[in-house]
Design goal:
The structure is a single chain. By secondary structure, this protein is α/β, with parallel strands linked by helices. It has a domain of 139 residues: Beta-carbonic Anhydrase, Chain A, CATH 3.40.1050.10. Helix content is 44%, strand content 13%. It is built from seven helices and five strands, in the order αβαβαβααααββ. Strands 2-1-3-4-5 form a five-stranded mixed sheet, sandwiched between helices. Strand 4 and strand 5 form a beta hairpin. The radius of gyration is 18 Å and the shape is globular. It starts with a helix and ends with a strand. 36% of the residues are buried. The structure holds zinc ion (ZN). Zinc ion binds next to helix 4.
Amino acid sequence: MIPAAEAIERLKSGNAEFMAAMQRDGSRDGSSVQIPVPVPGEVPAQKPFAVVLSCADSRVPPEVIFQQGCGQLFVQRVAGHVVDDFMRESILFGCEGLGTRLVLVLGHRDCGAVKATLASADPEAAEIPFLGKVRAAIHPAVEACQASYLEATGSQQTDVVNDAVARHVQATVEAVRAFCPDESTGLQVVGAVFDIASGEVLYLD
Ligand SMILES: [Zn+2]
């Protein structure tokens, strides 16, 4: 079993490699990204060292941004990293069934689900056709940001979105902590935000 502190260090080290690859390439085609792959013909044991709950955004692939290969992360993904009963069971399986001691909630800047939730407060906006239940789940965490989002423009609006993302990540962390084994088991639930532009994962705590 990998302790939570060691799991965080592995993620930080992998993210540093990813950022270095971005600097080398100057592009995101992944040509210099080296992720471990299994030996042909072998079925390795599943021993992930962390559960990662992330947004489904295609620009936020946890195995890539943490430079982890097959069997190393137990990844849960859904738009806006919202938690429902299926997600709850799957996270608990990662903790209790597979023995991980770290759950990372990974939001990201420029999150479309969070932006759609903020924009849904505009009475003059066209109805948003998608993500209705996801927006409803995100809403309580970002409600306090909606008025300033509608008033802001340009970079100020971006700042409001980033603030709302951090609030929603923190709310998700608290929701996961509520059903996970307590910290006496060594389990830690940690929140972070991925900056798509820089490639850096920024931890909230
Ligand atoms: Zn997102």
